[in-house]
Design a protein that fits this description.
The complex is a heterodimer.
Chain A (H helix, E strand, L loop, with lengths): L2 E5 L2 E5 L4 E8 L6 E6 L5 E7 L5 E3 L5 E5 L4 E6 L8 E8 L5 E3 L3 E6 L1
Parallel strand pairs in A: 2-11
Antiparallel strand pairs in A: 1-3, 3-8, 4-5, 4-9, 6-7, 7-8, 9-10, 9-11
Chain B lengths: L3 E4 L2 E4 L5 E7 L5 E7 L5 E7 L6 E2 L6 E5 L5 E5 L8 E8 L10 E2 L3 E5 L1
The chains are: A mainly beta, B mainly beta.
């Protein structure tokens, strides 16, 4: 069965610093992977998705993620954090039944 | 376009009471979903509807029922609320659940407290 593990329930970075949110997946078939962001008191919004077309995927708000099959990872990065990036981030994988399976989430805090 | 809308935004129930959470989408999507979000557990699928006229159980269906009223609307019913159902409930929709790259769009959520 497909699953994802997000390492670190909380990540804190300074404004302007690199953002790195980790996601490892488990899948017996080529995975389709997603990153969603949830701002306080809002629903989830798609940041980017991996569809096997390219290993480096660029998303909205300057975020990108790289699919590494050898490491079974799909980590989310942004070169320079902004205060507005403070939110909870979810990695998800599509399972064999074409349903999304979400990780537990990582709360990103950005310090001024 | 409003996207996915949910009502109510907040609700407090007593144990044993019933209620229905409403969801509507205006994107002409075929598939709709109900999730619950609990701290440290991400989102878990309660029920989904791949297309109008069909519904299927997700990961945590016990204590819930759903109705796909038409293509736009998908409601979630708690027949006899329990404190364990205290959660934030999200509705989502997508164009075609069978496509692996299918993107789900989420509503703003309903915060439910069961006392």
């Amino acid at each position: 069965a497909q699953s994802v593990t997000q390492l670190g329930s909380h990540v804190s970075v300074s404004e302007g610093a690199l953002v790195l949110l980790r996601c490892n997946y488990s899948s017996s078939v080529p995975p389709y992977l997603f990153w969603y962001v949830q701002y306080p008191n809002q629903g989830l919004q798609l940041l980017l998705k991996y569809t096997s077309a390219a290993t480096l995927v660029k998303g909205i708000n300057g975020f990108e993620a790289e699919f590494k099959k050898s490491e079974t990872s799909f980590h989310l990065t942004k070169p320079s954090a902004h205060m507005s990036d403070a939110a909870e981030y979810f990695c998800a994988v599509r399972n064999g039944g074409n349903k999304l399976v979400f990780g537990a989430g990582t709360i990103l805090r950005v310090k001024s | 376009n409003a996207g996915v809308t949910q009502t109510p935004k907040f609700q407090v129930l007593k144990t044993g009471q019933s209620m229905t959470l409403q969801c509507a989408q205006d994107m002409n999507h075929n598939s709709m979903y109900w999730y619950r979000q609990d701290p440290g557990m991400g989102l878990r699928l309660i029920y989904y509807s791949a297309s109008e006229g069909t519904t299927d159980k997700g990961e945590v269906p016990n204590g819930y029922n759903v109705s796909r009223l038409n293509k736009r609307e998908f409601s979630l019913r708690l027949e006899s609320a329990a404190p364990s159902q205290t959660s934030v409930y999200f509705c989502a929709s997508s164009e075609a659940s069978k496509q692996p790259t299918d993107t789900q769009y989420f509503g703003p959520g309903t915060r439910l407290t069961v006392l």
